[in-house]
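Please, structure for the following, as tokens.
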Amino acid sequence: QVLLAESGGGLVQAGGSLRLSCAASGRFLSTYRMGWFRQAPGKEREFVARITWDLGPTIYADSVKGRFTISRDNAKNTVYLQMSSLKPEDTAVYYCNADGGARGDYWGQGTQVTVSA
């Protein structure tokens, strides 16, 4: 089992920045792809960014490319999402995800990000 705990959400003005953190615990973490998803009110959960624990490529949704950066600290078992040039449409609950394939798929509790115009 993998446990995920997000932090770092909050209220920010448009154009501002926030950094989300996802602390992971569990076995075989190096075999999981880590990602961020978000869900706005009345909308389906959508993919934001993904990273692996090794030196694999990072992947971003087109809507955040060039503004968000996903990274990880292997020593701390933590994944980050640095968000810059935030827009009101980025307002959502952001969820951390650990995708282990056959090992399972795990989600954090989510952290609210609100961007005011």
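The chain has a mean pLDDT of 95. The chain has no helices and eleven strands.
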